[in-house]
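Regression check, nicotinamide-adenine-dinucleotide case 293:
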Amino acid sequence: MAAAIKKVGVIGAGQMGNGIAHVAALGGFDVILNDVSADRLKSAMATINGNLSRQIAKKLISEDARKQALARITATEKLDGLSDCDLVIETAVEKEETKRKIFNELCAVLKPEAIVASNTSSISITRLAASTDRPERFIGIHFMNPVPVMELVELIRGIATDDATFETAKAFVTKLGKQIAVSEDFPAFIVNRILLPMINEAIYTLYEGVGNVEAIDMAMKLGAHHPMGPLELADFIGLDTCLSIMQVLHEGLADSKYRPCPLLVKYVEAGWLGRKTQRGFYDYRGDKPVPTR
Ligand SMILES: NC(=O)c1ccc[n+]([C@@H]2O[C@H](COP(=O)([O-])OP(=O)(O)OC[C@H]3O[C@@H](n4cnc5c(N)ncnc54)[C@H](O)[C@@H]3O)[C@@H](O)[C@H]2O)c1
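Current build output:
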């Protein structure tokens, strides 16, 4: 039997966290949005407001729906503000150590019957679940970026996830108007298992001088009908997230074909993480993005 979800906690107010808070609030759920950074919380609320307004301009929602959605979201820097949530979705940085630490602190304050989910792009749900006090009530709910626009959500059961948790997550995602693809718990699941090696290969293509940024992105847009070029997409996802996913694939599947491109490693080491830091394969500081190679 699916449990009734009324209040949803979201941990991490980055690009995914603000999107998940947005669609959950619009779907009628009360949302508690948490981040360690007060600045990130502030900018997440501004982004949500801006994206809701954009949906009004496109006549997708009414002004009333925007007001109600905003009123349903509470921002907090304190994890214990999430104690009475029915479902908590962790969407902080793609680092297993950080996620484990969050689950440790969260489970100490969260009501025992609540479900805990991770929006991880690649990390084992079974392993994350085992770091909590409730592996049977733990599940992967993997949203796509940008959350308000993308239709798909992957659901991933860990080995211990029980049927009620799966049904509850399914009902929650359906209420958000999203389609579900069920994935087994393998590194990077379905979408990123296919997408990230393609992006990594595009970075190798750049690294080896086969083409420059503009040529590679144009080739895949016009030659393969992709809506965004792979390097543009990497910048959009975040190069740190791309690298973490490739590392999980490389280590988890123990196959050299997943080796992260050294150029991707170098960009992340430089702090050039894509759109979120204004510089990645493109420079975003001007009116329009300028290729950097
Ligand atoms: N970027 C994508 O396209 C995408 C798509 C699907 C899933 N994901 C996954 O979603 C998660 C978040 O990615 P993102 O792109 O939103 O990253 P991001 O860098 O935009 O945001 C991460 C946020 O987590 C916060 N944070 C860090 N440690 C925290 C803690 N201990 N407690 C609370 N908040 C903390 C940071 O302050 C930041 O605001 C990752 O696991 C990523 O793999 C990303």
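Comparison notes: The beta strands are 7-11, 30-34, 73-76, 87-90, 115-118, 138-143, 152-157, 179-183, 282-283, 290-291. The pocket of nicotinamide-adenine-dinucleotide is lined by residues 11-17, 34-37, 40, 91-94, 98, 102, 119-121, 143, 145, 237-238, 241, 276 (CB under 6 Å). No diff flagged against the previous build.
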